[in-house]
Amino acid sequence: MKFFFIFLCISATWLNAVEVVSPMLKIDLNGTVKDMTLHKNTLLIGTDNGALQVYDTKSNIFTKTVTLPKVKDFVGDMIATRVFSVDKIEERYLLLSDSGKGGYVNLWLHENNVTTQLLDANNKKAVVKARFINKDQILLGYLSNEAALFDVKEKKELYRVQLSESKFSDFALNEKKTQAVYSCESGVLNVIDTYTGKVLKELKGLNVDNVYKVDFKKGIVSAAGQDRRGSLYHVMMGRGEYIEGSFLIYATGLSPSAKMVAFAMDEKNYISIYKRATKLKVAELQGQKSTLNTIIFKDEKTLFSSSDDNTILMWKLK
């Protein structure tokens, strides 16, 4: 009987074993990573050195760099601008950067080796994040927690909606780019129709403080909270559950199927991987040196992560 009990304990431990994963690839950048997006096998990285760098994940080489003009700082010196939001649709690239004036931004399109400016400081846009929803329309997230849709051809906003009085943190699009979830410092999430700005669902009750990052796949939203909660909402149902962390959770990512979720759960900058349905931790990714800001699943086994330094790491689960 004693032997049988020991066998059961060992078996349970083995079944619940957490895989410890080291990075399989390190990508060095020309500056600190501010944003990262993945488009099939193309990784886009915005840096604080005024550049968008394009990386081919199959050949493991940089294929393109777009460098923006320098801006004046508050003492009049010319410095590299921060490129803090990047995106791509077909061969059209989107860059959102500092203008150096009053917290307002510059918005750029790059196509056919030509960079065109859509917005500058004179437009007085305090935008934090920008993403294409189609080739000619760009979803914006304002610092004031307003959602807006900008039309490239008309060079104007088609709508602008105030979601709450709390400061904006992040937004994420669903796969078809028809809906987006917006997070803010209150912990309340708003799901909107990207083409009209209509609020479709308010998700609340799991996070009670700032939600730094969100992801949105297969009708599931993951939320990385300052309150040390990694939240998971089912959008249609409007409710969910959370996983308790030991530190502020700065980043999250869902796998393409939404069966797996990643959270930056502790002060060591480890990435914890969970089975979403059971919340069972299956892997821990160890090797990130700085505070995480982005986690992206390429597929169910491959991830990319970036932090507040000049490296991106690639990971492979068993």
| Global outline | globular
CATH homologous superfamily designation of the largest domain: YVTN repeat-like/Quinoprotein amine dehydrogenase
Mean pLDDT: 94
Number of helices: 1
Gap between N and C termini, in Å? 35 Å
CATH class of the largest domain: Mainly Beta
Explain this structure.
The protein folds into two domains: 23-144, YVTN repeat-like/Quinoprotein amine dehydrogenase (Methylamine Dehydrogenase, Chain H); 163-318, 7 Propeller (Methylamine Dehydrogenase, Chain H), CATH 2.130.10. It is 4% helix and 55% strand. It contains one helix and 31 strands. The longest helix has 14 residues, at 2-15. The chain is globular, with a radius of gyration of 20 Å. The model is unreliable at 2-15 (pLDDT under 50).
Question: Which SSEs are present, and which pair or pack?
Answer:
Elements: H1 2-15, E1 19-21, E2 25-28, E3 33-39, E4 42-47, E5 51-56, E6 61-67, E7 71-72, E8 78-79, E9 83-89, E10 92-98, E11 105-111, E12 114-119, E13 127-134, E14 137-142, E15 146-151, E16 156-162, E17 168-173, E18 179-184, E19 189-193, E20 199-203, E21 211-217, E22 220-225, E23 229-234, E24 239-244, E25 252-254, E26 260-264, E27 271-275, E28 280-285, E29 292-297, E30 302-307, E31 311-316
Parallel strand pairs: 1-28
Antiparallel strand pairs: 2-31, 3-4, 4-5, 5-6, 7-8, 9-10, 10-11, 11-12, 13-14, 14-15, 15-16, 17-18, 18-19, 19-20, 21-22, 22-23, 23-24, 25-26, 26-27, 27-28, 29-30, 30-31
